[in-house]
Batch of 2 targets.
Target 1
Amino acid sequence: MVGDVAPNGGGASADALSAKVVVQNLTIRYGNQVALRGLDLSIRRNEILGVIGPAGSGKTSFLRALNRMDEFIPGMEVEGRITFDGRDIRRVRNVYALRSRIGVVFPLPVGLPLTVYENVALAPRLRGVRKGSELDEIVERCLRRAALWEEVKDRLDSLGSLLSGGQQQRLTIARALSQEPDLLLLDEFSIAVDPVTTMRIEEVLKELKHEMSIVLVTNLVQQARRLADRTAFFLTGEHVETSDTARIFSGIVKDPRTHDYIEGRFG
Amino acid sequence: MNPQALARSRDFDHRGRAWYVDRAVTVFVFIGGTSAILFIGGIFAFIAREGLGFVFSEFDAGEFFGSIAWRPTSALDATYGALALIVGTASITGLAMVVSIPFSLAAAVFIGEFARGRVRETLKVLVELLAAIPSVVWGFIGFSIMNSLIIDLFDVPIGLNVLNAGIILGLMAAPIMTTIAEDALKAVPDGYREAAEALGATRWQVIRKVVIPAAKNGLVAAVLLGVGRGFGETMVVLMASGHSINLPDSVFDSVRALTATIAAELGETAVGSDHFRALFTLGILLFMVTFAINLAADTIMRGIRRKGERGRP
């Protein structure tokens, strides 16, 4: 057909138009200490972006900046520009509305001091869902998608903190999903989770990326290899490179340090 | 065995200075620690010895709890109706809690959740300073400033009444409640706040849905300790309440409190007389109420709660 030409041929300029999140010249400081320096990066729609790098490389600071969680860390300063669906997140007038579209999973599961049910129902309640049947439905759906429903369906009214570590982490994923986010940030989610549960969560993430963009910060290089479409390598606040995961792991790197890191030669 | 090791194992039978210091310190802290039990027991035994004598001889429960006629000095027909005193204490304490609970919880939330850095530190120091103001100074403020203020504002003949004592007592209890409540809020892990904020909750939603439920036990304990403090306070209620036996119809009526009665009358009674022992009976009542309140606060603070107590709403 005439004129039926794909407008975006790919590459950086296409990213700027179609990406979910575009980060430009992001610098993060804690007092005199620079945690992240001049980061340019974009997060595409429906991809899993892996972020790897040794401790202190700025990975977590990067996540914090994405949903403006820096605001309650004293001394954390963020410079540069981040757009979410084309909107500069520094200029949104309701930061809570922005955060409600970004799900976060922390390294250690933070089960709020609520029941299993209320942990998942909290975000819907905050956005005004009142009807019990609707909440029941959301809670069940999110728990199912986090591969937790079968284990907790008979104990929805017990405290979330009584679940095992792996279950609690899936509970926080269910809670993040209850926000109906279009961006999901995972910060080393498997630190306190057994390998079997980790694999189950990884399967869940592969499904979820059809509906949202996912940023997966991980200490486990192999986890990035298994899950990420693209992988970014951070080193002491420097963004070394971002490339297709398949390329990076087949040795096609722009910077030899990336190769050294994934081969386990330092870090 | 080599000679060095042999020499060292000879120490097995030698008690050096460190051993004796250790033993002395152990004994000293043991006495310190257990003396609390001794004092509680001793005080209770002392009050009970004087008060219970009255309870078993002259005491008439119907009169004590049902009559307002507290006439211990009447030569012909001494009566010991404590109802007005109980109501006096309860009404002052009740009003004090109405004043202090919202004040101190709001202050605790502000200091704990909103204030940052220097503001927070300054406020904390000031609140602790407030808690250190002697009660007689509070009583003085009630007696002089509040008294004339109430007379002017409400156009009543006397300003020493339930309102005056309640407000002063409330202001006096507020700093302690604030400090304990703020400690309870501080004990809530920051991870909860972060997780809730990440869900898109506003500051107030975080506080209401997550922080306060998590700190609930400590907050209740703070309130109870405030109640206990108000109940046992003497000087303020003596100076600001008007100290007249009366069942109050409104907050503008003068009342007399249990504690103030003991303080004012004990010096004028003959040791061992009925009046003397009746005052000790009031003491037993006070002791039991404050003991119960403190015990409740302590139990709650220890967080005794059933698993999964909260179901779906």
Note: Chain A has eleven helices and ten strands.
Target 2
Amino acid sequence: MEAKVEDRPAMTVEQPAEPKETDDAAPAALGELKIKATDVNLWYGEKQALFDVNLEVFGQSVTALIGPSGCGKSTFLRCLNRMNDVIDICKVKGDIRLDGEDIYAPEVDPVQLRARVGMVFQKPNPFPKSIYENVAYAPRLHGLCATKAQMDEVVETSLIKAGLWEEVKDRLDAPGTGLSGGQQQRLCIARAISVNPEVLLMDEPCSALDPIATATIETLIDELKENLCIAIVTHSMQQAARVSQRTAFFHLGKLVEVNDTSTIFTNPSDQRTQDYVTGRFG
Amino acid sequence: MTDQTASLASFTGEEAQKKLRKRHRAERRFRAYGVAAILFALAFLVFLFTSIFSQGWSAFLQTSIKLPVEFSQDVINPSGNPDAEDEIFRANYVKLARAALYKQLGIDAEDRKVRRDANKLLSRGVDVQLRDMVLRDPSIIGKTEDVWLLASDDADALLKGSIDRKTPSDRRAVNDQQVAWIDQLVDKGDMEKRFNTGLFVNGASSNPETAGLGVALIGSFFMMLTVVLLAVPLGVCAALYLEEYAPKGKISDTIEVNINNLAAVPSIVFGLLGLAVFINFFGLPRSASLVGGLVLTLMTLPTIIITTRAAIRAVPPSIREAALGVGASKMQLIGHHVLPLSLPGILTGTIIGLVQALGETAPLLMIGMVAFVVEYPTTPLDPATGLPVQIYMWASSAERGFVERTAGATMVLLAFLIVMNSLAVYLRNKFERKW
């Protein structure tokens, strides 16, 4: 669909990417700098999927990654908790720091990292276990709860935070896969936040849900961001506008522009961003 | 675009109706082919089963004669020393059985011809039968007891109707005198077809009435045990490594191709390999069920690896992502999610592999398991046969009793296969996550 755009040549790979960083303009509402990615390049085999991406993600806020299909926004998101490691042919270069610490350093254990940087996926993917076990899985994995009472508490708080407790408190032993799509996704969020991660990555968490379930999740994201740093990939620009404080626009593997959400949607500095957010392509 | 649409035929006209009818006819024809193929296959199956069952059911019954046998001290233990095991072992038990038979039939024991005719009613296995009774309970010596003794193959055949009474006496295996005796015994209720336990417990024998599957069953059991203990862990580990850890590349491709090739190698080649490697090189004994089990392990491995890999691959990637996303290590991912989810598939593949191995004959012939084994094997290193090999051996014998035993043994083998396959289906349904 992007082929219809007239100014297509301007977006070819040869064109050096010029992400217009506006750090100093970041409003005070944002928390401290959580993740800083510098010159991230990524290859799937021979094919380069990310080109010199520089992005900063702040705490206590939601950063939305938008862009047309195949622009690398999900790929970039998966770099942040090293989920790309499991793909054999995937090679990452560059520097990604979580609280100033290089997450690709050899001494960093990706398993530990993923507990600190939780992830919610596009398709709700609860384990084929009970609701309780779904939430208790990660704390148990990392040995965070010594007693059953402690575990019960963690499960309850996580489910409350995910806004699911009232709906499932009487049937914690029921299979997680028996819930509705929206409930399943909230269960997945509860599972991700059960180990108190510092960052929550969400990869199009609402794309498989109906508008009502989507609205619930969006409210939830709004609440969660009080204590969390959230990065969300979304296809829906309305969603990005609704939930995020900062928005990054990706195109063809490059970060085109990142700024306050309101700026991106009302007064983008790049022509491509303007075309995308006004619906001229993508 | 518009021109093309205009030139398209109408959906409603006479022509279109005709085309539609043609399409429906083709559809029905296509379905009929499928039904025909299934009916064809079913017909063959029914034919196969009827032929095996009609021939084989009688193997589960064996004619016996009830005789009051006098366990005479003079014949069994003339020295009177109850510890003289050798004497008891070598005693002339046939004499005891025959004496009882003459008495029962009320015939003159002095007439040699009559005696010989009467002797032919009893199986040659009666001595073992009586000897075992005495060895089990020596206090029986000196008493008289009613014993069901095996009748001969010919008497058995007459009772089962495989010898036609209308055949002239001189061309019949049993003469008129013998027929009369048999009828006399049957009328008194002293001769009847009883359930043939010997078929399941006896070892090899040249007399059909005393031949059994005992050794073959134990041999097959030892072989299956070897296969389960070796092929399953090896196969599952290999499949897990190849699927989860091995870097995708030329080497793993080569391994994959070769595993598929191994699955297609004729089983006799595995037999040759077993002969060359396990027997000639490692010096394991011939005819041992351990060697058979090792050869069958090699044969089953590719099946187990291939089905396990398919089962592992069928685990949804979303579950993998979910587990990795909350910080599970690779091993935890496999242990907590991949293995439990692929377990039904692995079990099914394993059982299908075992069923294949259980029915395999050719490699066992190569490693000398086609042997005349009378004694039960007590370890996997003892000589043994296997079920399919026993069928093969019986099938090449001419006696009427062996013909029915061949079919009977086939029924036993089929029963095992059906039970194992049903188990596979049951386990798959039980462990399959329905939610």
Note: The longest helix of chain B spans residues 14-56.
